[in-house]
Structure formats: structure tokens, C-alpha cells
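Notes on consecutive records. When two proteins share a document, each keeps its own sequence and its own C-alpha cell line. Never mix them. Below: protein one.
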Amino acid sequence: MKRSGLRLIVPLFLLGMLVFSGLIAYGAETNLWINPEIKHQTIDGFGASIAFLTSEVFIMKEPYRTEVLDLLFKDLGTTIIRFKTDVNTEFTNDNDDPFVTDWSKMNFKRDAAQVFVTKQALARGITTVISSTWSAPPWMKTNGMLQDGGYVKPECYEEFAEWATAVVKGYEKFHGIPIHVFSLTNEPDLATTYDSMLVTPEQYVEIAQAIRRRFQKEGIKTKLVGPETMGTIHAVKQYVPKLLAEPRSIDILGVHTYADNDFPDLARTGEKYQIPLWVTEWSKLKKNQETGIDEALTLAHHIHEALAIGNVNAFLYWGYWWNGVTPEGLITASGLDSYYETTKRYYMFKQFSRFIRPGMVRIDAGSDLQNLRISAYQNDKDLAVVIINKNGAQQRLTLNLPGDAKLDIYETSDENDCVKTGSITVKNGKATELTIPANAMITLAGPWKHNPSLKVEVPVKNSATSISTFTKQIAITGFESADSQIGSYNGPQSTISISADSEVVHSGNKSAKVSFASKDWVGATFTLTPGTGDWTGLSHLRFWMYGDASGTSFNFVLEDAGDEQFQLTSPLRVDWSGWKEIVIPLSEFQSRTDWQASHAKVNRQIDYAIKGIHFFTNNHGKGTFYIDDIEVIGE
């Protein structure tokens, strides 16, 4: 097939334009785009835990206690609270029959602090209560202790189910507290010197199914969340295949994100199994950790990655409060001193939780300014746009919205604590300029109305880089032996095939042909054989791609000599037909922070030679494209 003379030099801003072609331009330069027509996950809410140091607030004198409760459960805007399942409810066995509960032997009088705080939270707007189990009562465990791990004895699986049922019914009966979600174990892959319990994937299924049978018999609607492992990879690889085999053992896939995390894989898992994804715990967990703007921005960035890359439906921070020894909470509190202090992370968390309301849907959003992290959320009447600037310099951008909006601007920075600093009005899609302060986060929030008729192509910017200035090149592959260089993966509802093709080629005798039909996720991998030569001075990746105008957006990843992976923050949208030359500055690839192989040599810079290229998508769609003549070029 004859090749055309199309050429595309692609800095990151142009990749973004290729993706979000439904954006409004009206002749203005576009730095931030929102596409309400591409919808992602529905938000279930935000929250945190009150496990362990609950007494710090419970014993606090008035009016300080009420002030803390108002801050956490009204001002913050959270809707989820997570407490520690109280083992005192059945510290000794009520009887020898796990199918008959002796309520006279159950004790619901030992959890006063958690009960008080939870009731206060419910009165102030909390709508979801999670009971998470750090340990079963000692008599059910192999080590006979609350601490140091230990497993539930197989002969006690039904006893555990009886206890879980009694906890759910008892908190409602004796305290008026509904438990909406129950977790049978916190971090089943970690034994600690405090309350802990180990549970293998196989054991998890048996215990969870026992709980399900008991809940069903008792007419209990409480959902099960799990496995709450230390990281996402362990959950997805080890627990999910067992827990989500039919009949399912959990209703919500809940994970902690302390350890091994792969947010793209978590998103694919949620799509594959059509199950809600909740991050149920995260913090930096460092003694004497900083509570200023840098640490708060780290939290904001982590939440952004969970929402915008992991597609999670709910995010819970570790502690609503903690003491001053290890100030891990959103608030630092001392009950004995009747002292409390809000941290910068409290206000950074509020930038999400106060304005992104349950029921809102995340929609496509992005920016050509690579130092910004942006996500957007909408419901029938309101819009919330979150913008994080971890750069040491302020950023000016132009915001375009396809519709009408009146949005207040809230800022958390060194100077401001989720303070309203202004407002913007957008009428009929007219562009508006914004300034994002250095090392800050802003949230735009308010009423808006999407106008679907406002669909104008983003004007293509002319790159200042001339192709004629590239005089140095190293060929990576032309796919002349493509069958040995290509691979694929796909979800259960999708298909993908990759092969060498001799009909549609840019040069030589073969190209790589990719045909796909995606209903959940598909991916293509190209293992490259780099050419020899001097790699110094090389600055751009160049390849030819034959598009079919399918409109499918693909994430794009490079793998370097040390197996470190680098990803473009905006996907590449295949919205053209025929051959097109694509030239991307290597500086636009950023080292992945969500996942790296355990053996990768991570140093945040591309080490030559480039060993692999990966394309993957979570979008629904089908099509065929071809790739040929991959090389690295420079002046």
C-alpha cells in the first residue's frame, strides 16, 4: 500500500488534543480540557478510620471535642467511617453451637469510644459504616493471641461467621449503628506485634462463604469488602482469582496501597469483574513525618493516581486523627490535653472529599502542562475539577468547558487552607484563564450545564521542531521478523490479534498488524531489538502508524535497558486514517510511579537502549492499526 506524506510531531499537548477531540476551542489556546462524553467510574465517597486511638477524641473536653467532630464529619465532607471490629463482643465462646447465638454471653459494652464517635459521625452526615477486623477473638485462632498473626482454626470458620453476624446485628440492636460493610480481616498478608490475623486466599473464600450463608439466613444486607491486602498487586494476583470466582466471596474489592501497587492493573481488574474498587487505607506511616505542604501534595498525588489511573470508587485515608508522636492523621489530637491541630493534609484531602460528592461520575480531563495532575467529576447539576501543581513555579492555563458554569475556586497551598480565592463564570463554552499557584492544589466547584452541541475540534498547534533538524538516528525495528517480537493480552470479554503483515507496510516487507475488539481491556507489546550506535544526543522517538480512525485511546509505555517503564500522561488517540509519522520527545515520557517490575533498575531517567513499547486500553471499541519503522532520532 502506498504511503502518504503525513507527518506528526507530537509533544504532550498534541497527544492530549488527539485524545480529547470533543473539546471547545473557539480560537483560544487550550491547556486544560474536559470531555463529559467520556465517562469513567462513579464515586462512592471518601473517608478514613477511627481504629485504635479513638479515646483521644472521646475523652477530650468540650468545646474542643465538638469542634473536632464537626471538622471531621461536617466540614471535611466525608461520608465513610471505618472502625475496628471489637473482639470483646465474644472474647470467650458463647456456646459450642455456631448456629445458635447465646446473646446473654455477648458483650456490647466495651466499645464506648468507637460507638460514641460513630454515632456522632452518623448524626453529622456519614452514610457508610465499615467494620474491619484486625483479629478474630483469640480462642478462634491457631496461636491463641490477638497479636502476631495466627490463622482462624478451620473448625472455627462457622464460629467466625456467627461472631460477624452477631456484631452486625448487635451494633444495630444495642447502639443503633448500622454496619453497611464488613471486612473479615485487615491486611491478611501481614503479621504484626499489634492485633493481626493471617488469611490465605483459600481460607478467605471458606470464611467469607460461611459469613454469606449466615447473612443470607438472617436477612442481613451488609456487604463484604476485601481482601484489604497491603498492596494492589498481591490482591489482584493472589486473592482476586479465588475471591471473585463464582459464587463471589466479596461485594467490593478493597485494597491498601502501602506496598506493591499497580493502579492500571487495578483498573483493569475492576472492569473485568465489574466490581467496585475501594482504597480502604493509605498513609506514609512514618514517625515524626512532616505535616506541611510537601507531604500534603504527596497525599494529593496518591489520591489522584487512585482515582484517575486506578478508577477507584472510594478512597479512605488511614486515620481521621492520630496523636502527636506519629502525626499520621488528618488531625493531630491529644485527649488528655484537650488539644487538636488540623494538618495541611486535612485541607488537601478536603479539596477532594468536600467537592467530589457520592454519585458523581469521573469524566475525561487533562492538560498539556505535564507538571499538572487534573481530574474532573460531574453529576446532573454540579462539576468539580481538581488541579494539582507539584511544580515550584505557578502555571497559567486556559480552561474550556463545553457548556455554562459558575465555579468557585478553592486553594490549598503554603498560604491557604482550602480557602475560596475567587470564582469563574463560563458562558456558552467561552474560554477562561486560570493561574495555578506553585506547590498547590485547587478545586473548581459549582453548578454547570453541559451543552452537547458544543463540539469543536481543538486547533492543531504547529510544532517549533523541524523534522529537517533531525540528522542522527538509530533504527530499533522495522518488524521484518515481527512474529518473534510481538505479544498481546486481553480481558475475558475482549479479543486481540497481533501478527506480521506484508500487505500494509510503510517500508520493507513487513509491519506489525494489531486487530482488537475491546469490551474490557486489551494490550499489545513489542519487544525491540535495538540497533547499535552512539545513543548520545538522541531526543525523540519516531515511528509510523497506520490508523483506521477508530477513535480508540491507547496508553503508551516505553521500557528502557534497565526494565524501568516510562509512560505518557495522556493517551494516544487513533483518530486518523492511513499512514502517519509520529515523533514524540523522549522528555514527555515520565517514569511510572504506579508500578515498576521488582527487578527494574529505577533511576527516573531513560537508560538506552529502549527494549520495549507497550500499548494498552481500557476503553470499549474495536479496530485495526499497523506500526512500522520504529527509531530514535536526534539532532
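Protein two starts on the next line and is unrelated to protein one.
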Amino acid sequence: MIMLYRSLLSGIPLGLLLLATPCGSFAGTKEDIGLTALLAELGGSAPTGAGVSISQVEGLVGSDYAAVATDPELTGKIITLKSGASGGSGHAIFVARSFCGSTNGIAPGLTQIDAYEINEWLQTDFLNAGNNNTAPLAEVRRIQNHSWIGSTGVQATDEDIVRRFDLAIVRDGFVAIVGLNNLNTNAVPALLASAYNAISVGVPSGQHSSGGTTNETAGRIKPEIVAPSAYYATSYSCGTVSGAAALLLHTADASPALLNARTNSEVIKALLLAGATKTQFPGWTRTSTQPLDVIYGAGQLNIQKSYHLLKAGEFAASSSVTVSNRGWDFTTTSASAARYFFDVLAGYELTNFSAILTWNRRVVDSNPGPTFTMQVTMPNLSLRLYHATNFTLGPLRDSSLSPIQNVEHVYTNLPAGRYALEVTSDTTGMDYALAWGGTVLAQVTTSVNQPSWGTVSPVSGNYPVGNPVTFIATPAPYFLFSNWSGNLTMTNPSVPLTLTSNMTVTAVFAERFTTNHPTPYWWLAAFGYTSNQETVITNFGANGFPLWQSYIAGLTPTNPASQLRFTSQSVQGTNLILTWNTITGRVYTLWTSTNAATGFAPLSGAVNLPATVQAFTNPVAPNSALKFFRLQVELP
């Protein structure tokens, strides 16, 4: 890590956190944030950030502050130098690669970059800090990326800078991404992580400054979110989050129904934070008065989850109509509570339910004219989650009631039932964004018709609705897959689908038989015949029978004593008792004839006898003709 310092605005120490070479993997970053899964899911319709533009604010590395289009990953990018001439800055190039590199960036379709040097951006190029007569200039780009930290050393000056920054975010509607210092031994920096209206970014390792702010109301938790990068530093994690924001903006641009997500930065912030995952961090925690974890904020960026929250649509609060259990809203506060009733259907569970309420600190010029005087309004909004019956609130399930944050967060698992999110405020007419959703789990029950004949996957359990699931039937040796039954009726042993509801599925397997004298392969294998099954079935076993006949009779071909025995006994010359040995799963028929060679017919009352019958009494009339008997054994 190299720390570079430059005197800014009467001495603002600026820190850039640089790594000379990549330490991680772009592919790994995309996988970790859910982008790989989203691209696989959407294919050619996936957002790329096309049409979205960004301002990249960087410190000097030597005499350079900008990324350059001559970099192979940035070919075709339009980079406008807003702070004078610059060559390529390695730091700026790596950050730009992170958010829009053509092959490795999160939003490769983003092509327009306005490059600023921090000192100039703070002063006449944008913020006009220290000039009491001039407001910040207008931002025409939709994202600002700030992979730097700093402080003037004067709290009042730092607060003036942060307030101007928050004013510009509210006025112009851009999404602001700001970095924290690297290493967890460092305090939350004044610039620009102390801003209310930006999204401060840390790294999944926790090696970043974290905890509470010291400026502009002490104790506000930073970061809001963490994100991986290929370079393992907060500068480049900012690039990852900026790229994710570009994907959401591109998605919003493509749908008139998502209009409010295009120019209201609160919506993008709520979506990114509500989609963040916590499972990577066993120690992640929050309370009703501390909405974010002190190290990991809302959790790790997951663009797939945030994308689906956005696409679920915008829903207005209502006390008579339910909303989806996944979605968002952008509206203003009123004197009454805003409530969002939603259902978790019977038989399902909504896990990792995450709701984020966020609003901007309002900073305005209180007296427009020759002077610029900032007026700050910081309302206090609260978020509660209730059980509900119809449209009546029930017991409180969770709440987020921080008196100082402008983010509220509830996070829980919800069994089937009705619930209501409630937003209240001490100030009317304030814009806010609310995003909510979780993972609906469907019950998948899988089984096989005969456990020894094959296996099925996945195993029975709860699986996320909307995720891909592949049902696979794998026959055991010497068996065949036949078909699916239950909620699947196909004959393909592998069935990929997107899970939409509870499912009960059975894999039906069948025995594999030889073509001639149908004999199961498994039966032959049990006696050592594991190959050439079609020809060996006519071989004689040690018991003197062809193998196929031993199978039908239920005999053991390797045992000479295994025989089908059929005997008779005359009783007082009037009855003939016929006896035989049986085996379960076979039926037996007695045939009779007066000719040993021909003319045999089934004996009345002795047809298809079950294995439980092992004797038959045949009446014999005096002086009757000689009779011959045969025993037939067959499979049912």
C-alpha cells in the first residue's frame, strides 16, 4: 500500500490507496457479487451499463489523474479531461477497469467518463468549496466515483465540503460512491465517507475503516456496503459498486415503469443495500437502533438480488391493497404512516427478508442570490415490520429506529402469513426510497420408486423460488430410468427448470432385462454374470437348469441342490395330493393330461396359484385312466 499526499484547499491531505498489480480475479469478483449468475440467467438481455455515464474523481499520481482509452480494457471509452491535461494514472486505470473494463468490468457498456483531479473538483471544476458566493456546478453524469479519502484538518471546512456534496446529490440525482480507508485500524475519514447521501464502500475482509463517523453527527455507521474487487482495496471496490449502480440504471432506462429509479439516487441506494447478502459474515449483526453492522454495513453487494428487486417493480403504500413481497417504492412522507402489506403464501417461507429505507439529507441554498448559504434538514424516518391480519396491524416483528442514520434496515426470516412494512417520519414532504425482498423457499420433495434401483437429486428440502434446479435421476448398475411422476411427467433423466412452486417428484426406475428369455441384469450379476448377459442366459447353472429358467423358477443357479421339486402322494386311493416348493413373486399352475407327450390343459382350481399355496388335492375316481401332471411357474 502506498499513501500519496497532496495539499488541497489550504492543506487537505488526500489519500489514494494503490496496489501495483492485481491480486485477485475479475471472474471471482463477478461470481461473488452475483453477476455471473445474473449473466447466465439473462443471457443477451442482461444490462451492461450502456447509456450510463460516470464522473471519476481521482488524486494525482505523479502529474496524472485520469484513466486513458489506450488501456486495452478501456478501448473505445470516451474520457473527458475536466481538470486539464493528464496522462494515464495507474490508480485511475485500475478503478475504471473495475467499473467498466470491456472484458473484466462490471458494466462494460458504460463508455462516457468525465475525469477530475480532486483538488480541482473540490474547487472550481465542481464543488466550489470555500466559495461562499457559489453553489456546486451541475452534475450531468449519473454516477460519481470517489476512490480517495482525505481531510482538511479543520472540521468546519470538512463539513462544508460534505454538505455541498450532499446538496449536489439531492439537486442533481446522481449516485455517489465513496471509499473508506484501507486497514481496520483507521478511523472513518471525513472526506467523503461522512456524507449522508453517498454510499460508502468497504471490502469483504473487513480491512477498512469502519464504525462511527466523527463529523456531521458522530456515530453514524460506515460503510453502507462492502464489495470485492480484483485488487483487494477499497478504491477498486468502489469501482465494483459503481459498475453495479450502472447496471441498475441501465435496467431502469429500459422500462417506463421504472422511471423513478432513473434520477432518484435514493432508489439505487436502497436497492443495492437491500440486495446485499450477509451469509458470508457469520458475525453480521444489527439492532433496532443500529441498522447496519459496524464492519460490513448492509452486507456484500449482490447485483443479481438487487436487479430482481428493481425488476419486481414499484409499489405504492396502501391500507387496502397488498404489494408483492419483493419490490420498491419512491415517494414522500406525510403526516400519516405509509404501510405496505404483503403475503408469504401458505407452504412457503421468505428467508433473508431484507428491507432498506433510505432518504437524503436535504441541503439547499436558503437565500439564493449573490451569496450561497446552506440550510440543512435532516428528518428522522423509522421502519417497522408487523404481523398483520387482513389490513390490520398485529404484533411488531422487527423495527429499525436509529435517531441519527438516514438508513433503516430490518432483516429476518418470515414464515407463511401476512405482514406490513410501516414508514413513519417526523417531517412531511421528504422523499424516501424503500426496497424490500427476500428468498422465497419452495418445498421440494423427491423420491424413487425403489431405493436400490437408483438415486435422485436434489434431495428433499427447501429451495429458492426463481432459482434454477435440475432434477437428475441416476439408475443403479443393471437398472434403467423409466420416467418421472408427480409434478414432472417427462422421460428425460435430467430436467433443468426454474423453480416456481412446491414440487413433489418421483424418479421411476425399471429393471434391465435381456432381449431373449427376459432375465434381469441385476439377477445375473448377483451370481457373477456381469458381462455378455444376452448370451450367457442359455448357459446351464450348477443346478442343471439354464440360467433364464433358474430365474423364472426362483432357483439359485450356483447351488446344485437348488431344484424345483414336484411330488405326489396318493391317499386311500381316492385323492392325489400334489406338492411343490415355491418362492415369493411367482405364480404356479398345474396342468394335466392322459398323455405324457401332449394334450395338457390347466387343472381346474389350480391356475395362477400364489406362492403361499404349496399343495393341491386332486380327486381320483376308482378305475380312472392314468393321468400325468406338470407344474408351470411364471412371473405374475
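For the record: The radius of gyration is 38 Å.
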